[in-house]
Amino acid sequence: MTTLVELAAEKESADVTDWAARLGWVVGLLLFIALVYWLMREGWKWRGTLQGDLPELPAAPDDPGPAKLELTGRYHGSTTAGQWLDRIVAHGLGTRSRVELTLTDAGLDVVRPGAADFFVPAAQLREARLDKGIAGKVLAEGGLLIVTWEHGGKLIDSGFRSDQAAEQAQWVEAINSMINTTSTTEGTAR
């Protein structure tokens, strides 16, 4: 009987969790995550500073005329034209949001709840096309409506996705037709 008592006395219990070490690791990880987010935020602000030469975005005219087309969907951002990863963040153009687009004879009215609205005059529109990606957002081929426009001497691509993807082809046709009409009218006026 003494052997069982001796055996029981010799056994040691398992190591208890070292809460101080575990808490130190958790705090260190949280500080690292906070540092990464802070650096990302500073990078975003720095990019906006670099793009500070971009003039203020135009506002919609008081009477833009009757709507040719209307669309609701998502605004996925703007980039330097032809460089789908070079996001433009100045003046809120880098902020993704819901969008309501209205195409009139005066131009393209971009209304973004929760973000800065802007207007692209018809004379500044350069091209419309369907594409698959812009500024970190990649979809199926033809999933994005990309509108190229000029602002402050710089060509900008803005990406939109309609709630009804089938209507995006209509937008490409209407905008390109409007651009061709505008450029033909300007050419004959000279």
From TrEMBL:
<dbReference type="Pfam" id="PF25362">
    <property type="entry name" value="bPH_11"/>
</dbReference>
<protein>
    <recommendedName>
        <fullName>PH domain-containing protein</fullName>
    </recommendedName>
</protein>
<dbReference type="InterPro" id="IPR057446">
    <property type="entry name" value="PH_bac"/>
</dbReference>
<feature type="transmembrane region" description="Helical">
    <location>
        <begin position="20"/>
        <end position="40"/>
    </location>
</feature>
<keyword id="KW-1133">Transmembrane helix</keyword>
<keyword id="KW-0812">Transmembrane</keyword>
<keyword id="KW-0472">Membrane</keyword>
<feature type="domain" description="PH">
    <location>
        <begin position="54"/>
        <end position="175"/>
    </location>
</feature>
